Amino acid sequence: MTTALEVRGLRKSFGGIAVTQDISLTMQPGERRLIIGPNGAGKTTLFGLIGGEIRADGGTITVFGQDVTKLPMRSRARYGMSRTYQIITLFPKDTLAHNVVLGLLALMPLRNNTMVDLARRPNLHDRAVQLLATVGLGDRALHRVCDVSYGEQRRVELALALAQQPRLLLLDEPLAGLSQDERQLVKKLIEDMPRETAILMIEHDMDIALEFADKITVLHYGRVIVEGDRRTVVEDPKTREIYLGH
Ligand SMILES: Nc1ncnc2c1ncn2[C@@H]1O[C@H](COP(=O)(O)OP(=O)(O)OP(=O)(O)O)[C@@H](O)[C@H]1O
């Protein structure tokens, strides 16, 4: 079976400091994988490399059998990969629906046509509202991003990622900055994502994240130090050393 993601010997240095050191990992289609590690372990850099914002110094990244190592970020989406960001990247003065419409447009062959008349494409708007409804924001579609809460903005990001119907979804701390109630809501949204979508997630909230994961990868100083199912990782002395200091 073709793997969803195959990372081999990935390396990246910034100013001579190795931040990603020979990382390899394999994900199967539909797998739910959690990446954990202390601050500065290189989690976000690894996401940047996989997503294509950061160019690797060495190694390869294959998505559903396609070598994407040298492809720019936007081209990687065409192979089924989509991601959210730790920092929100929405247009604040536009409505939620319009943000999602832009996300949908980015996937279409007419995406480079700046003259596209959105008023003549009501189906796009309807699709955007539908997607917003899947993250519980159907009734907020016509609100501006700057007028909704931080938690709601994070849910718009999830709607945008889902708009791409990804086969591989990268979630960078989807629960960060959310209230307890919003965490539960977003957790449920992630759990309810199509089971065939492989999800790679960075998350600090262990209580929620461990439950979600089929497999966990622990990074430390840019290396994979432990990998396995929940029990293997939690019981491994190296994990305990990092998180508990003993
Ligand atoms: N563009 C950059 N230039 C220089 N150093 C960088 C750059 N990006 C990241 N780093 C450094 O690389 C290391 C790993 O950073 P990264 O953000 O990937 O870690 P992280 O595990 O995601 O941490 P956190 O949990 O705090 O978000 C850090 O020491 C960081 O300062």
UniProtKB/TrEMBL annotation:
| This protein's name | ABC transporter ATP-binding protein
Q: What sections of the sequence does the record tag as coiled-coil? A: none
Q: Which GO terms describe its molecular function?
A: ATP binding
Mention any Pfam family matching this sequence.
ABC_tran
Q: Which residues form the ABC transporter domain?
A: 5-246
Instruction: Note whether Nucleotide-binding occurs among the keywords.
Output: yes
Is Transport set as a keyword in this record? yes
CDD domains per the UniProt record, alphabetical: ABC_Mj1267_LivG_branched
Which keywords accompany this UniProt record? ATP-binding, Cell membrane, Membrane, Nucleotide-binding, Transport
Source organism, top-level taxon: Bacteria
